[in-house]
Amino acid sequence: MVQAAVAVEEMEQLSPLDLLIRLYEGAINFLKQSADDCKAERMDSFKENLRRGRRIIEEFQRTLDFKQGGQITAQLNDLYTYMLDSLRQFELTHDELHIERVIDQLETLLEGWRGAQYQAVA
User: Which residues 6+ apart lie within 8 Å of 31 measured at CB?
Assistant: First the structure.
């Protein structure tokens, strides 16, 4: 319980960009763990980690600002929709190609956000 309170306090002190980066890292970690769980046939853990990764992507999509984001927002929306569809396919087929694509895309976006973070600090 104390650790959870500390984690919440730490998260509240993060900048929006730092929080976004942490969420991307979390989604990637959950999805990698889900893939590992699937290989090891740990179905409960597979589903739980997949659900956690999916919920982060759903939140990314839900919080897109279409009024100010323009074309980039529309492209991110399409990408997040594709990712969510791919995760559904992975859940149904257990074909790792589907989850690997999503992880690769998230890692690419994460690197872009880290670059933005670096530019903000420099």
Answer: 49, 50, 53, 87, 99, 102, 103, 106
91 close to 47: Cβ distance less than 8 angstroms: yes
Residue 100 backbone class (left: φ over 0; alpha: ψ -120 to 50; beta: rest): alpha
Distance in angstroms (rounded) separating the CA atoms of residues 122 and 111:
16
3-state secondary structure of 64: coil
- The pLDDT score that the predictor gives to residue 48 is 98
Does position 122 have pLDDT exceeding 90, yes or no? no
State the angle between helix axes of 16-39 and 43-62 in degrees (0 to 180), rounded to the nearest 10: 150
Q: Where are the alpha helices (DSSP H) in the chain?
A: 2-12, 16-39, 43-62, 66-93, 96-121
pLDDT in tens, 15-70: 999 999 999 999 999 999 999 999 999 999 999 999 999 999 999 999 999 999 89
